[in-house]
Specification:
Shape: globular
Number of strands: 8
Distance between the termini: 47 Å
Number of helices: 2
Radius of gyration: 17 Å
Structural class: mainly beta
Order of helices and strands: HHEEEEEEEE
Number of domains: 1
Strand content: over 45%
Strand order of the largest sheet: 1-2-3-4-5-6-7-8
């Protein structure tokens, strides 16, 4: 088995611990946030306006390298039905393990379909802008995700998801990312 492909990821294990700490802090803040008393038998409906935040981390794969990344995203939109939500999202990624630190901004659209209970599948599409010192790149991003969302109050839900994104950069090598996200949405 060839372990060289994961070697750059493990050399930067400090990044992994930062991502774990960030995720744990985000999760604790979600659990300690105030919820309505109606949560005991609340309305828990995805229809109408929604807004939320998600954070997490993962790995980015290019033809020459494997690196870690951390991200934070915001989404605003609406629930078309109880089982379908559509939102605009803005994600900001920090890629500290590349040759130079880099930031990536990814605005786009997200569609989530809910199946059984809180189990969902999502599709993402948007632009990506990668900024490194003296070198900016543009591209297109397409992604899919699966996850589970559960209500912790009358109008607040927490979700955990795993996703894949393909970043097709116009003037550089394409990149693939695997992301794990923890988020909250207010309906």
């Amino acid at each position: 088995m060839n372990h060289k492909i994961m070697q750059p990821f493990f050399q930067n294990s400090q990044i992994v611990w930062r991502a774990v700490f960030f995720g744990a802090a985000l999760y604790i803040s979600f659990l300690t946030s105030s919820t309505d008393a109606i949560a005991l038998d609340g309305y828990q409906d995805r229809r109408g306006l929604l807004g939320g935040i998600a954070g997490g981390g993962g790995a980015i794969f290019t033809p020459d390298d494997v690196s870690g990344l951390m991200g934070l995203g915001f989404h605003f939109g609406g629930g078309a039905t109880e089982w379908l939500t559509i939102s605009a999202n803005v994600d900001l990624y920090w890629l500290p393990a590349l040759e130079q630190d880099a930031l990536a901004l990814r605005p786009g659209l997200q569609v989530r379909g809910f199946f059984v209970g809180g189990l969902f599948g999502g599709l993402d599409a948007g632009m990506v802008w990668l900024a490194q010192e003296g070198d900016d790149r543009l591209g297109i991003a397409l992604g899919v995700s699966v996850g589970y969302e559960f209500f912790v109050g009358a109008n607040q839900a927490i979700s955990l998801s795993v996703g894949y994104e393909r970043h097709a950069l116009f003037d550089a090598d394409d990149a693939n990312t695997i992301l794990v996200r923890l988020g909250t949405t207010w309906y």
